[in-house]
Amino acid sequence: MATIKDIAKEVGLSITTVSRALNDYYDVSPKTKKRVKEVAEALNYSPNHIARSLVMKKTKTIGLLVSDLMREGVKDNFTFEVLTGINKCAGDLGYDLVLFSTSSDKQKEKTYTQLCRERRVDGVIISGIKTSDRYLTEVVTSDIPCVLIDIPVNSNSVGFVTTDNVLGAMKAVQHLIELGHTEIAFMNGHDFAYVSKKRLEGYLSALEKAGLPIHNEWIVNGSFLDSTAEKVAYELLQNNPEITAIFCASDLMALGVIKAATKLNIKVPEDLSIVGYDDILLASYVTPSLTTISQDKYQMGYQAAELLISMLKDNTTPHQRLLNTHLVIRESTSLHNKQ
Amino acid sequence: MATIKDIAKEVGLSITTVSRALNDYYDVSPKTKKRVKEVAEALNYSPNHIARSLVMKKTKTIGLLVSDLMREGVKDNFTFEVLTGINKCAGDLGYDLVLFSTSSDKQKEKTYTQLCRERRVDGVIISGIKTSDRYLTEVVTSDIPCVLIDIPVNSNSVGFVTTDNVLGAMKAVQHLIELGHTEIAFMNGHDFAYVSKKRLEGYLSALEKAGLPIHNEWIVNGSFLDSTAEKVAYELLQNNPEITAIFCASDLMALGVIKAATKLNIKVPEDLSIVGYDDILLASYVTPSLTTISQDKYQMGYQAAELLISMLKDNTTPHQRLLNTHLVIRESTSLHNKQ
DNA sequence: ATATAAATCCAAAACGTTTCGGGAGGCTAA
DNA sequence: TTAGCCTCCCGAAACGTTTTGGATTTATAT
């Protein structure tokens, strides 16, 4: 494999000059540049990124720590769409992505910082981890530039991108209220998710705004899983037949709730209106299709990458970005039919 | 950031010895090893992967060239599931993954070989490219170890993993025949896919085996897209009302075909039986759920990674792996109702 | 003609590892 | 006693770049 040294020998110049020629420095004459580049081409030279990284102490790569990159995460391709956005932006800006496989047992022993420092990534994007995750506490203490998705940590070296979850949840609940519903339950995720807190906030505030009473026993956790949500919803609906609508903190859980309703012979949306959150691919394909709060997952990834790279360049811009959501009305919600 | 040199200074040994101690070489005494490791720990040392790679000429990373890692590829999370499998295996075997963003315009100028050589990946896995892709021809000529998914190229440095597509297609068609269908059309992908050729082969051979006539005009291409498949199927069904079943070379296209049928007021499965291919996530959630040929996408990824890494270690094993498929019967197929 | 500035080029150090080829000292066997 | 063999250690080169701090030549101004 041809190196810069081979080129130098070939054109009869120093390796310094060759390097500077290839990198278009001002202090090498146009003719020399041209000659050097021709020889480089002829020798089929490609620069050694590794060697460059070593001396420059920059790798032009950003690490990806995504906990959902495993078998179970497949259903809700949230992570995948985010990844797609990250990938596009990174590509546009000349960065490569390295996936850390945190799933393996060996790697699990390593700390977040070790992982990043060994691979010498310039920065990291983290998605899909719980607020209780061991990695998270490490992030704030380490000084590795980092962008979190849906976890609001803000320091000199870490930023985040998220959506307006309070507003999103309010939109969902207000939609139900406008349809005439007053008995609205809430299927939340779990306590270790920032978005859960915020969506709860939005749910409560929408009820309050409408002057509706709050039933604490109607606020349940489905762990963001369809299976769990189904079980929980089954009990909830069985014990509280007065409920006419459920707002779910994720589409996947909404699917679980629909299953539970079906088992209880409750018709969606005639007897029970359901609105989800995320607008995952399944939402529009399932029957009945899901009314949901849509968030632009691709954009979240894209913005995360852009934010991180801007932080790497100069650390002056604010370290957070807030994206909008919007209500998508489909078939799982309908006017409350007063009997 | 602490280096091996700092450790050497601290313990009063040469950097050679420190290096060999950390790597558990036989020629350093147990006591010294222990001392070195303690100091390393104390100094919060983490090895510089970059420097190591430079001298060892191995990066312990494998490159990923997946053309579907863009917005459109999201529907069919085939790629994602494959990626998940690759990620797991790579993690287990101590390799990291780097995603090449071939989507960007800048990068598009670079050849496959340049891409890999610059990043100094040890090997590459390629998925989701057409047989007409410029990258493909480069693969065979370059000597970079490479594993292709669903493209049968076999040389000293390149291998592949795929499923038995002929058999898979036969299973699908035979299922339809067993249900009493005789007028069976085939919605194929496009001519630039190896799997399309094979599935066509299976389709034809199943018909032949059953002594059924072959209608060439019933074999159409849907480009693996639901939208295209819908258009094509609409015409096909309109012009050939005698068709009672369609075998589709992908689930996504099957969805398109269902849409077309619905528009034409043809009921699935009562009037038209449909079997897909892939068993993507949507297949089981959609109404009617899809009878399909299931392939283990996770396993394809896992095997691809394993194959590649085994090729890197020693180049003696055969460079190909064939996976099984199986028929999953759901709601989109039913007995032919003879009128 | 001389001093100054501009245009080109280069030697050598640095980045953090691994590894080759040895070398010193102690032990064993003849 | 001596030769040979372990055991444990080290100096220096190598990997392929970038960058620093001049050096040399050529053009320009005085």
UniProtKB/TrEMBL annotation, chains A, B:
SUPFAM superfamilies, per the entry: lambda repressor-like DNA-binding domains (SSF47413), Periplasmic binding protein-like I (SSF53822)
Q: Per its UniProt record, what PROSITE patterns does this chain match?
A: HTH_LACI_2
Q: Which PANTHER family match?
A: HTH-TYPE TRANSCRIPTIONAL REGULATOR GALS, LACI-RELATED TRANSCRIPTIONAL REPRESSOR
Pfam families reported in the protein's UniProt record: LacI, Peripla_BP_3
Q: Which residues form the HTH lacI-type domain?
A: 2-56
Origin species, per record, is Fictibacillus barbaricus
Q: What InterPro entries does this protein map onto?
A: HTH_LacI, LacI/GalR-like_sensor, Lambda_DNA-bd_dom_sf, Peripla_BP_I
Q: What is this protein called?
A: DNA-binding LacI/PurR family transcriptional regulator
Question: At the top level of its lineage, which domain of life is listed?
Answer: Bacteria
Q: Keywords assigned by UniProt?
A: DNA-binding, Transcription, Transcription regulation
Recorded GO terms, molecular function? DNA binding
